[in-house]
Amino acid sequence: MMRGMRLVLNIIWLVLSGFWMFLAYLLAGVLLCIPIITIPWAIASFRVGLYALWPFGRTIVDKPGAGVGSFLGNVIWVIFAGIWLAIGHIVTGVAMCLTIIGIPLGIASFKLVPISLMPLGKDIVDVDAARGAVPIVRA
Q1: Radius of gyration of the chain (CA)
Q2: How many CA atoms lie within 13 A of 60 on its CB side?
Q3: CB 38 within 8 A of CB 80
Q4: 73-131 pLDDT tens trace
């Protein structure tokens, strides 16, 4: 039953928000491919764009071993693309929350804001795989 609900939510999401946000991530990724030094951020943009296209049934977890490099990379990401993508998720989230049916989709859009701001040091995994995962404890 959960798979059916995820499929329905993903299809509605795809039509109302997912496709447009995917195009925004795709554009950011292509623009970040122009200077060779920003290709790692472009790859992150493509990865998160695919997540924004079909988010239900997947979740975000911290990548083991991510540290200062990921943080510094995320700072650069916010400057070049993250803030604009986060604004896109906020605008679509508010628009979806205007209807009762759209409220769960709006909440999902708001949940994508953190990864749109800081995609480095994160992994996108299946929800079922994440339930069995042990939380990472960092000192």
Answers
A1: 15
A2: 18
A3: yes
A4: 899 899 888 999 999 999 999 999 998 988 989 999 999 999 999 998 888 888 877 67
Residue 77 neighbours by CB under 8 Å, 6+ apart: 41, 44, 117, 118, 119, 120
Output b/e per residue, 5-14; b: 16+ Cβ within 10 A: ebeebbebbe
Q: How far apart are CA 119 and CA 62, in angstroms?
A: 10
What is the reported pTM? 0.83
Nearest to 126 by CA among 20, 65, 54: 54
Alpha-carbon torsion angle 38, 90, 136, 130, nearest 10: -100
- List the structure tokens of 79: 């400057």
